[in-house]
Amino acid sequence: MPKSVIIPPGTSAPIAPFVPGTFADGVLYVSGTLPFDKQNNVVHVGNAAAQTRHVLETIKSVVETAGGSMADVTFNSIFLTDWSNYSAINEVYAEFFPGEKPARYCIQCGLVKPDALVEIASVAHLGRPEV
């Protein structure tokens, strides 16, 4: 099965061996996305809502680079470091998915950088075989 790597313009080098997105058989898989700036430093330290917005904007850029929109997102995996941030994360999340919501799960866990409060990975169905 052919696949295409999706890297939005201006994307910095990842901190591990992965790409921002992979498109195969009409489906876009967006890697776990953390609230990183271009130098892979955590942004908006201590602010779960701002970190969530940054993460979802980054995911949006991957989806749009592949030719889709956030309406094409069908599933999200959400990782948070503390349940006390759940409400703030959901408020921002709802802004990015105002209509029918994607399926999702949310778990509390440790993340790769201690100042990161949220990480999200997504799946989008773009309905065409190649990018």
UniProtKB/TrEMBL annotation:
<keyword id="KW-0378">Hydrolase</keyword>
<dbReference type="InterPro" id="IPR019898">
    <property type="entry name" value="RutC"/>
</dbReference>
<dbReference type="Pfam" id="PF01042">
    <property type="entry name" value="Ribonuc_L-PSP"/>
</dbReference>
<comment type="function">
    <text>Involved in pyrimidine catabolism. Catalyzes the deamination of 3-aminoacrylate to malonic semialdehyde, a reaction that can also occur spontaneously. RutC may facilitate the reaction and modulate the metabolic fitness, rather than catalyzing essential functions.</text>
</comment>
<protein>
    <recommendedName>
        <fullName>3-aminoacrylate deaminase RutC</fullName>
        <ecNumber>3.5.-.-</ecNumber>
    </recommendedName>
</protein>
<comment type="similarity">
    <text>Belongs to the RutC family.</text>
</comment>
<dbReference type="InterPro" id="IPR006175">
    <property type="entry name" value="YjgF/YER057c/UK114"/>
</dbReference>
<dbReference type="InterPro" id="IPR035959">
    <property type="entry name" value="RutC-like_sf"/>
</dbReference>
